[in-house]
Amino acid sequence: MSKKRERVLAFSFVVIMFLFGVAGYARKERVPERPVRIMFKTKAGKVQFDHKAHLDERGYGFDCADCHHNLEQGETSPPACGECHGDEGNDIPKLEDALHMQCRGCHEENDSGPVDCSSCHII
Q1: Would you say the pTM of this structure is higher than 0.70?
Q2: Distance in angstroms between the alpha carbons of the first and the last residue of the chain
Q3: What fold characterizes domain 37-122?
Q4: Residue 14's pLDDT band (boundaries 50, 70, 90)?
Q5: Where are the chain's structural domains?
Q6: Mean pLDDT in the chain?
Q7: What is the distance between the alpha carbons of residues 102 and 66, in angstroms, rounded to a whole number?
Q8: Residue 67 predicted with pLDDT over 80
Q9: Which pLDDT value is given to residue 39?
Q10: What HEC string does the chain produce?
C-alpha cells in the first residue's frame, strides 16, 4: 500500500470517527415518558417513590391525576409539589403534610402499602 493511500485511509477514518462522535453527542437522550422512580429527601430520611408500582396494569392501576391533583388535561410534566406546598402561612398544607396526607392516606384507604414511618423513610 502506498503512503498516499495510507494517509487518505487514516484521514477518512479520523473524519468518520469525528462524525460519529458529533452525531452521538448531538443525539437527544431518550427520556422515559413518565418518571420511573423519584427520591424525596426529608429530615426523617429519604423516601423513594416508584411510579411503576402505582400506575396502569403493571401496578395498582392509578392514573397520574389520582396523585397529581393539579395536572391539566394532556400535561405530562406536573408542577413541582413545592411550588404550591411551601412553608408559607397560607391555607395550603406544607409539603411534608401534603405528602403524608396523600401517600399515607391512600395506603390506609386502600388497605395496601406501608403506613409506618420506617417503611417509607430510609436513612
Answers
A1: no
A2: 65
A3: Cytochrome C3 (3.90.10)
A4: very high
A5: 1-30, 37-122
A6: 83
A7: 10
A8: yes
A9: 87
A10: CCHHHHHHHHHHHHHHHHHHHHHHHHCCCCCCCCCCEEEECCCCCEEEEEHHHHECCCCCCECHHHHCCCCCCCCCCCCCHHHCCCCCCCCCCCHHHHHHHHHHHHHHHCCCCCCCHHHHEEC
